[in-house]
Amino acid sequence: MGDGEGVFTATALPGDPRLLPTVTNAFLGTRVFRDILHAAGVYSGAAGDTHRADVPSPLGLRMAAPAARSPAQSFTLDTWTGTFSHTIQSPGYVATHQLYAHHSLVHLMAFSITIQRLDGSTHPITVQLQSLFVPQSQDLDLTSGPDFQGAHYIYGQTLVPEVEGGPRPAVHMLWTPIPQSLTLAGEERERRWQFLTAVAGSEQEAKRSYSAGLSLLAAGSLLRSHLRSWAALRRGCSVQLDGPPALRQALHGCLYYLLSAVPPRDSPAAPFHGISPGGLSNGTRGEDYWGHVFWDQDTWMFPNILLLYPEAARAILQYRIRTLEGARRNAQEQGCEGAKFPWESAATGREVCPEEIYGAQEIHVTGDVLMAFEQYYCTTQDQKLFQEDGGWELVEAVAQYWCSRMVWSEEEQLYHIRGVMPPDEYHSQVDNSAYTNAVARRSLNFATDMARDLLIPAPEEWEHRARRIKVPFDEERKYHPEYDGYSPGEPVKQADVVLLGFPLMHPMSAEVRRNDLEMYEPVTDPAGPAMTWSMFAVGWLELKEVQRAWSQLEKCFSNITEPFKVWVENSDGSGAVNFLTGMGGFLQVILFGFTGFRITRSSLLFDPTFPEDITKLKICSISYLGNKLEVTITREEIRMEVTETSQAPPAFPLEAVLESGQHFPLWEGMA
Hints:
InterPro entries: 6-hairpin_glycosidase_sf, 6hp_glycosidase-like_sf, Glyco_hydro_65_C, Glyco_hydro_65_M
Number of domains: 3
Shape: globular
Oligomer: single chain
Radius of gyration: 26 Å
Organism: Copsychus sechellarum
Structural class: alpha+beta
Protein name: Protein-glucosylgalactosylhydroxylysine glucosidase
Enzyme class: hydrolase
EC number: 3.2.1.107
């Protein structure tokens, strides 16, 4: 099947086109051989109908050989180069179609067709290009403009704004005209034809990007510039594992799809538009939750991005800061103070979930958003985000929301949060969801700590309410009921209470942690979403129950499709496809579960535990307080080396502290 690790090759495509690989960067995404692409943040439709606007894609084409005999074909996704290619091998020649979304020039996508003669013949060789491209869209009012530097030009706006009277984003697209066939002349041995597509929110940016692409093509370095910036990202986020091949290949796939979604290192200035469960290539109306952003981004994908690439993590947080006004309106509409982040978010932060119950009740998402800010602050100590870039206003608004959403119970002498839907969506209108209340407590504690660090006076009620909020606990059975009145054995849709241990790190004994895992593992729906099992795996790893962890992690593999390692949300193939949420959970097992990494206010804890058939884990670049750490863990030892320290702002000096109490200072270049 494959020909090398991280390179996925097949001789036939999967029958279901949803399982084709995606080529994506921070601004543009498409699925190979599909007639549409999407641009980040470009949604059409009002409120619950808002969905990613379909942009017609010049990349939607397929090579065909005119020969009567069907030639040998292969399809390859190379996660090291961030390219997809289709090859036709005939007795006398080979033709290759290669496409990619340029990683650093995010407004550009490109493809090339190469025909190479393999024998001494001198007859012309022709390859047909079967294009699906039609320059029209159900979501945009498109108009043709004048050609520009040999490119065709269309532009237009989305048809319906997300909020009445709100903006309708514009799309400007330039593309190299595509002939119906290409011919290698009799005297030629090899020839390559290059095609560019530039998409942007303004005519100026589209033209600038197209021109930049043309001049790189003229210098012969367009592909090279993409490869260079993609390789730098893959290197910086390299996670190497010595273990079962299926696990290693899954890891390469997850890193490819998740890193495709983040902003490039060299253009962090452009606003980032968040990551939906199925990424930018999906999100047409009726698909992948319409391309909306959920807690999937903040809870499931974010922690991995934070450890490996904090600049991209910051961009994700800035998306939430940009949508704060919409979140304030959501809170207002529910009669609350502060800001309530939407269950489903698009461009404005207003609730765009098509079904009212989730937006009204699944309120834990507001705490999930703040938890990402807290992890970011603990890992970077970046006060600028909070002082100058709007972070503090968001922290304060979330704390105000939780205070106004809880009520005092005279009877229990505790604060209650009533009428919610927990992460387990099989239950609604419950009181005191353990997860929701625990995340609210974390929000309030973080807001208090943050105020202290910024020397801002904070209301005393934040700390008071955090102490007095009810997190249900059964004294007799020594476990956390999912909500008031939960009875053991009741079916649960997905990971819920087990999230108290990780990522929430809610204080509890090992006995209680074990009881929670034992209580919920057998009643969690086996058909539930893919990220669930990874959190059970992390829990069992914490308790050093390696076999039980492995059997949970193995369940993920039924959600990974062949040959391109595209995840499906549910093991029966339903739900979102290219399910980055499941990939995020899977990566957390490796980055936090196997290593035991835990982000706290004062340190980065580590306590590795491996399943038996894994012998070594090497994470090339963990970012912590301005330092880059190379961490290598084997059965015998843990090596940590500071490979880089930032100068401005200066990095914090680190030391490793062992349980024995020994301290080892970590300097740059010293293991």
